[in-house]
Structures are given as C-alpha cells and as structure tokens.
Amino acid sequence: MCNNFNKDKTRVILVDDHKLFRCGIKSMFDNSDSICVVAEAECGKDGINKIIAQNPDVVLLDLELGDINGLELIEKVSEKCPNVKFIILTSHINEHVVAKAMKMGIYAYILKDINSEMLDMIVKSVSRGAMWIDNKAVQILREMNTNIVPVVQTSRQNFRSKHANLTAREYEVLKLVVDGKSNQQIANELHISEHTSKAHVCNIIQKLVVDDRTQAAVKAIREGIV
Asked: The whole model's pTM is what?
C-alpha cells in the first residue's frame, strides 16, 4: 500500500468483490513509478468508507459488489469526494448502465479483459483528466443516440480532414491502439516488426499532438475514427 513517501503517485482504491482480481491489479501496480494502491474494498459499504477516508485520485470500481452496485456507490460518495475520478472495470456491458454511468460523469468504462499495459496507461490518463470508453460501449452509446459519442461517418470524415498527415498504415495502427493492442500484438497482426510498430505509434502520438498512446486512442474515439 502507499505510504507517506508516495505522495507524488496517483493514489488508487480498488473496489471489487473478487479477491483474486484485486490481488492481480494490485500486484500490477506494485512496481509502478507513478501509481499506487492505497486501499482495497470487497463490498460497496467498505468501498464507500475507504473512499471517503482516503479521498484517492482514482477508483477502479466493479459494477456488481454484492451489497450495492457500483453506480449506487458513486452516488453516495460523489458529493463528499467530488475530485475522485471513477473507472468502471466490469466483465459485461449493459446499454442502460453504460448510458447512466457516462451521464454520472465517470471517466472510464472498460472491460476486465483489457491487458495490463493498457489499464496502466488508462489510469495514468484518467488521473490527468482524460476519458476512456471501451469500443463496445462506444457502439452502444451511438446506437442509443445519447450524443455522448458523435455519429461515426461524419466524425470519421472530420477526423481525416483534421489529421490528413496520418498515413494509411498509421490509421491501421491507430485502430489497433484503440483496441488496446500492445506494440508486439500490433506487429503480429500487421506482419511488421515490433520496432516498426513502435515507430508508427510514436508518429501517431506526435501527429495527434497528444502525450501518449492512451490519449491518442481517446482522441480517436471522441472524434469518431472507430
């Protein structure tokens, strides 16, 4: 757990009723130079108490907690901890839950099958104020006409007009970055070397004027490239 020597790190609380899953996430962050877990909770009531007591930067939150659901937890603590950024980390997507969660102001809605590298980057990005929505959730929001995510075709045209300096290959790579693929996975899928894959990602980050691959993916989602 974090201590007084970790004040510069993003402080995270894990709220999930599966101990093994919490242990896996915590062990992933144990060696991070910018993220640390300050507390864990296995139910909603415990999560509420620890969030209010610790006032973390980010909360990784499951939807099903046994006693209450994740959205109820957010409602109960949002007024007391207005600066906490919530990331829904779930194993399934329900269209009504997705829409309600986004309207409540959560910063990210992601599935538990996400790889560790991408989760690490999303937490860092969210801590700086960025948002992240899983591709499947993006499609649901579009189909529901919530206006949370823009219409695909118009936005894709706008994206291409704004970022015409991206090559066709970089568009391919960007879509795979949005899917949460690592450099090695991108290389395998496109039959290129990992070095070339990494170079494409670096070029995309530079051309989109963002700080990292997560922000590039967020920008692509917001502007309808996927």
From this structure: 0.68
